[in-house]
Design goal:
Length: 302
């Protein structure tokens, strides 16, 4: 393992070279956590597709195929997308077909429209783009028309068209509404923003999800990218080695995964080396409460 001061760029070069070898050679497997409602074991690091997978077909998608190969080689499976993300659903479907990855993928997408018939049309279109008869998770994106859409999702789950259902939101201003839905509705998943510099969900949403037995997907664990960019020129703290972290990306992801309510993080990337770096955060020890306080103190200048 590289020393704590090892630069991320140097680590990424090594990670890219070693990604397939580690997965194939029986290295320490990625940790999994159970989905409370189903017991399905979910690998703790997946891949988001917002912006990163919204690319034209052809050679431009070749690096994305490598991203998914690295994810699978590392033991990951979760790929999260949405009709809101441009061509991302289409890209995921085409790439999974290209690399023969449909059987390994836990595909999550969303419904993002109003009205029952419009929701059904959109979800059928998502399945067609994803080249699948079923997805493992369908979510109501940003609570849009959630009562109508959840009713359809329950029917589709009963019919076997989706494996799990949930809701998402990305703003702290929506936490009151999100909390009300989590209390009122039986859900399998909630997807929220959570990062070292964006910890508002710690107050109510994460404890409530844990209390209600709702799995938690975390997007933007790097604070939308700004947090990681702001840290990359700072030396990695020496204590990072205690939990097996060789980069800031790994430390930020392990901070999020250290919360007992979190099931899986889904950082987005279009670079295979970044996917290898992210996936490494899914192995080894996770920070306990005391270690998480030390990580917070590092950001706060303590």
């Amino acid at each position: 393992m590289p020393p704590p001061s090892f630069s991320r760029s140097a680590f990424l070069r090594l990670a890219a070279a070693a990604a397939f070898g580690r997965g194939a050679a029986g290295a320490e497997p990625m940790l999994t956590r159970p989905i409370p409602s189903s017991g399905h074991a979910l690998p703790v690091v997946g891949c988001g597709t917002w912006r990163t997978f919204d690319v034209e077909p052809g050679a431009a998608r070749d690096p994305l195929a490598e991203v998914l190969r690295v994810l699978f080689a590392a033991g990951g499976s979760v790929i999260d997308t949405s009709p809101m993300y441009g061509r991302s659903e289409e890209a995921v479907g085409e790439l999974l077909e290209r690399i023969d990855g449909h059987a390994r993928a836990f595909v999550a997408t969303k419904v993002w429209t109003t009205g029952r018939e419009a929701g059904i049309r959109q979800m059928r279109q998502s399945l067609a783009l994803l080249q699948r008869d079923r997805v493992e998770l369908m979510q109501v994106h940003n609570l849009l028309d959630w009562r109508t859409q959840l009713a359809t999702l329950r029917a589709w789950k009963a019919e076997g068209r989706i494996g799990h259902l949930g809701v998402t939101h990305y703003t702290a201003s929506a936490h009151d509404a999100l909390e009300a839905v989590l209390r009122a509705e039986p859900l399998d998943f909630v997807q929220i923003n959570y990062a070292l510099d964006d910890r508002a969900v710690e107050r109510r949403i994460l404890p409530l999800a844990q209390e209600r037995g709702i799995a938690v997907l975390v997007n933007q664990p790097f604070g939308g990218g700004g947090l990681l960019r702001g840290l990359r020129d700072r030396p990695l703290p020496g204590f990072a080695a205690e939990i097996g972290c060789a980069s800031w990306a790994q430390l930020l992801l392990k901070f999020v995964l250290g919360h007992p309510a979190v099931t899986c993080v889904i950082p987005g990337t279009s670079r295979p080396a970044h996917m290898a770096d992210n996936a490494a955060a899914g192995r080894g020890p996770m920070p306990d409460a005391a270690m998480r306080r030390r990580i917070v103190a590092t950001l706060d200048g303590g």
